[in-house]
Amino acid sequence: MTEPLLSVRGLTVEFPTRHGILTAVEDIDLDIMPGEVLGMVGESGAGKSMTGNAIIGLIEPPGRIARGEVLLKGQRIDNLPPDEMRAIRGRRIGMIFQDPLTSLNPLYRISDQLVETIRTHLPLSRDAALKRAIGLLDDVGIPDAARRIDDYPHQFSGGMRQRVVIALALCAEPDLVIADEPTTALDVSVQAQIIEVMKQLCAERGAAILLVTHDMGVIAETADRVAVMYAGRIAEIGPVRDVIKHAMHPYTAGLMGAIPRLGENLDRLSQIPGAMPRLSAIPQGCAFNPRCPRVMDRCRVDRPGLLEPVPGRRVACWLYPEEAQA
Amino acid sequence: MSSQDMTPAPAPGTPAPVAPPRPTGRLRRMLDSDIFYSWKRSPVTVIATFTALFLILMALMAPLIAPHDPFNPASLNLMDGFTPPASASAFSDNWFLMGADNQGRDVLSTIMYGSRVSLFVGFMATLFAVVMGMGLGLAAGYNGGMIDAVIMRVADIQLSFPAILIALLIFGVARGVIPANQQESMAIWVLILAIGLSNWAQFARTVRGATMVEREKDYVAAARIMGVHPVLILLRHILPNVLGPVLVIGTIGLALAIIEEATLSFLGVGVPPTQPSLGTLIRIGQQYLFSGEWWILFFPAMTLILLALSVNLLGDWLRDALNPKLR
Amino acid sequence: MSGPLLDVRNLSRRFDVSKPWLNRKIEGLERLYVKAVDDVSFTVNRGETFALVGESGSGKSTIARLIVGLLKPTAGEIFFDGQSLAKGLNGAEARRLRRRFQMIFQDPLASLNPRWRVTDIIAEPLRVFEGGMADRERRLRVGELLTLVGLSPEDGVKFPHQFSGGQRQRIAIARALAARPEFIVCDEPTSALDVSVQAQILNLMKDLQREFGLTYVFISHNLQVVRHMSDQIGVLYLGRLAEVNSAAGLFAAPRHPYTRMLLDAVPDIEMTGRGRRKVEGEIPSPLSPPPGCTFHPRCPLANDRCRREVPHLRAGVACHAVEEGRVPA
């Protein structure tokens, strides 16, 4: 078995506030294999973006990584000084955010931004870097790339801008791309194109993707494995097809039932009562217990860790035996 | 978290009607606690608050606590003139903490009475500017078009002159219009009008901007769909939501109005000499600065600085505390 | 009592996006208009849900605002229960009409006045339409409405920011229902909500529709949601209706090439591996729409006629290729 590209162990992110310490992300364990697409799905406040940001060292103070470690190819990166972390971001981990304008400076031409990023990370001359940049824009499907590279970000449509961001994320040949809601701001028809481009380019370059999104549909289209997050913890993690078709955690099952489908028209959607708890009021025991249709006494007291009842699938729920069967 | 987060969708049916409880004061206090917290956390603001409160209380209670009555000719002794601070007059038994001025008036007492005039003019002028600016700003922001263009161009023109120049102009015009025998009694109101009129534009601008933002929000659309009258939409919906920034610039505007009043009085066009404000006192004092009687200028000037500074600091803090982005 | 409650005829709306007068004069520019809605006609039957679906720039929200009178049409008419709305609403008759329709917005936080308590927010329609109502009676009604949407009467004293997104949308629904309207325009009512909360709100809206016989115009970009909620669907592209059909018909047999493309773009959550065509191109800028059929640059079936001539809605679809029988099954 190959070594994971990225390992996250016991990652916990806390925010001290005047009302006490809030735990936004708690005890996250996950591995991303080289070339793998790991989806991370959850509703707002589930801590999915926070996890992505913690991995690349972008937690805004006063938030802090309280416990745990992040290893990139076996090397710890969560405790690196800021300038070393900055070198890793972009060079070894590329980033794609929801709003392309957080990655693109509106005052500079696309060519300047691409060339600068390429030359920061790779020992290339200006001309070579420019050539590479044009090639990248071609790859992400920007028509007439050689001419359009001298345009400013506002001269591109939303979808084209996100393509430029993908080019920017890939320009130093990173091992891992973290994509945080990359298609949320886009129309459905454009979303399909962007997912396709992202998936294809990463596959060609052997880059793994951590895809953070609230949209189960995007996950189903893109990811190999998926981690379902709830109230700052991983509820369930496993191969996409298994999780979608045979959810183990009652939250995942509820979530899947709540999504309206094109193929059928049910009179009522199945719904999970209530809403995700606020960080300041996460219930004792399993965070999902007040909303869970299969809640047991134990769920109200003990918080379940990630168990592996079936090889390759881990779930944080007391419904399953604590020891793996295999 | 609210307990209602757990409520499932209702089963259609007719539950026994229950009216919502009436709001309690406790909620209000809870709501304000964030502001209180940020106040407590800022020592500068706490000091500024107490300084401002002290000066305002001193001004309000001047007739009760002032050691002398500087405007009662019977209690004045010209021979007490120029008594230095913290000493007794050589001619009477009167003792002066901050010394006495050229006419033998107690400087501390004149400051107390002078702050009264300064604060009264400042408050009234700011109130006038707020009401006028807010009214015009709401009208301009909500209606847009011609009304907006006219109001805002007038504001632009006014803002391109120094406020003091406009106040002087209005003051001059008022002098010409008001009959001579009423000038003395009207002087303070003319001053309020002059300062108020010279400051409305910034309120109008701020309120117009905030109104244009609020106007586009869906809660206004919801009211418009119901056919709520535009004036009611402005007063009930938009006005409460634009008060925050008005409070901030109103506080800073108060400090400016106090300084403006002092400037006008210093120039001799402000309040009549029978009702000296801090500015008048400074004008009197500066004549004696170079002859060594520094206290006649120093103490009123320090009071003015303290007053303006503490009010300004309060305004600064209020701006940060009400800005959700900085929280 | 069946028959259309809402009849929209040849509705058009353009927006003036010209630069300011001075800039136009100095730079020698013409006035510039965007056709946000162009010649749109449809009818909505009583007790049914008519969905308008489209991507950005399709004009769906503009149509919503035209229907409820927040915008005035440039051309065309809107009839509500036989009475024209487009003439502008005034007087006592207008009050009676306004009472019968309401709107629910996308962002529930923006649609609730942050300085008002929930009781006052929900009571606003009652104050407007039932001025004679006693205070106590009004408060009872608010309590009843809060219970109806799954909140509790005690929530009335709170402010909107004290609620979660889903609860805020429940409050907005309670306000919409306060004056007992028959017709509600819902503009992306669940787009700002999480899936599990979306399911709650959609179920609630369906329950209320059944209980009170409500008629909805439901605006959304989400095809799955539209499929779940609606009886009739109109597909909009750049301000024009591309196709109108029953929900079942539209999803079973989409006719317009754009509808087909949209359906193909929806992520395949069932993971059936259904065959899908790749989506081509992007939505053109509404500032300079293509001539002829605005979809022609992205359409695999476009010919010269499509590039020249604007197709009109015939038998539920506006497409030359469909008319000429050039569409493969």
UniProtKB/TrEMBL annotation, chain A:
Cellular localization per UniProt: Cell inner membrane
Keywords: ATP-binding, Cell membrane, Membrane, Nucleotide-binding, Transport
Domain of life: Bacteria
Record-level Gene Ontology MF annotations: ATP binding; ATP hydrolysis activity
Family: Belongs to the ABC transporter superfamily.
Principal cellular location given in the protein's record: membrane
Organism: Szabonella alba
Gene3D superfamilies, per the entry: P-loop containing nucleotide triphosphate hydrolases
GO BP: any one term: transmembrane transport
Name this polypeptide is given: ABC transporter ATP-binding protein
Keyword Cell membrane applies: yes
From TrEMBL, chain C:
GO CC terms of this entry: plasma membrane
Subcellular compartments: Cell inner membrane
Listed Gene3D superfamilies: P-loop containing nucleotide triphosphate hydrolases (3.40.50.300)
GO biological process, one term: transmembrane transport
Transmembrane segments: none
Signal peptide (residue range): none
Keywords: ATP-binding, Nucleotide-binding, Transport
Claim: Nucleotide-binding is one of the keywords in the record: yes
Origin superkingdom: Bacteria
Membrane topology (UniProt): Peripheral membrane protein
One of the record's GO molecular function terms: ATP binding
InterPro entries: AAA+_ATPase (IPR003593), ABC_transp_ATP-bind (IPR050319), ABC_transporter-like_ATP-bd (IPR003439), ABC_transporter-like_CS (IPR017871), Oligopep_ABC_C (IPR013563), P-loop_NTPase (IPR027417)
Domain ABC transporter per the UniProt entry, residue ranges: 6-263
Short name of any one Pfam family annotated for the protein: ABC_tran
PANTHER family: D,D-DIPEPTIDE TRANSPORT ATP-BINDING PROTEIN DDPF-RELATED, TRANSPORT ATP-BINDING PROTEIN
Family: Belongs to the ABC transporter superfamily.
Protein name in UniProt: ATP-binding cassette domain-containing protein
